[in-house]
Amino acid sequence: MDTGTNRAKRRIYSYGLEQEMFDNLLREQGEVCAICGNPQRLRLGKPQELHVDHDHVTGEVRGLLCTWCNTRLGWLEQYLYPILTYLMRSTRWGNDLHDWAMHEVETHDLQQPTDLYI
Fold first, then answer.
1. Per-position pLDDT tens, the chain of length 118
2. Against a cut of 0.90, is the pTM above it?
3. What is the Cα–Cα distance from 97 to 74, expressed in whole angstroms?
4. Which stretches within 1-118 are classed as H helix?
């Protein structure tokens, strides 16, 4: 059984996130998901702790997310570029998305639009 102590140890090992830092981040977010703003969800009548979201390249902790948003963000990060590429083929979306992608490349000093999705 995964206890709060085990989760706290895993956060330290995986993200370098001490319990006090986790609690502060949770308080700063108003104890809700950083994306959807929903509080911790219930599963089988028990509150689900928010997940630590982090950049998979740098390891930087970005915030705390509910299971739903954390799962979808992972999916979106994986498929963002293919989705944008597909939408840019459409004249309705193409110009706006191309302009946005080029702006992001220039703003973040990226080599190419594929660097937008990591």
1. 455 677 778 787 677 788 888 889 999 999 899 998 888 766 677 767 888 998 878 888 899 999 889 899 888 888 887 887 777 777 666 667 667 777 776 776 555 444 444 3
2. no
3. 21
4. 4-15, 19-28, 67-88, 91-107
Give the structural domain span for 102: 74-116
Phi and psi dihedrals of 56, rounded to 5? -70, -15
How many domains would you assign to the chain? 2
Question: Are residues 79 and 55 located together in one domain of the fold?
Answer: no
Among 65, 83, 103, give the residue marking a domain's end.
Answer: 65
- Same domain, yes or no: 52 and 91: no
Q: What whole-number distance in Å separates Cα of residue 70 and Cα of residue 76?
A: 10
CA–CA–CA angle 34, 52, 45 (5° rounding): 80
Residue 35, number of CB atoms within 10 A of its CB? 16
Q: 84 and 48: one domain?
A: no
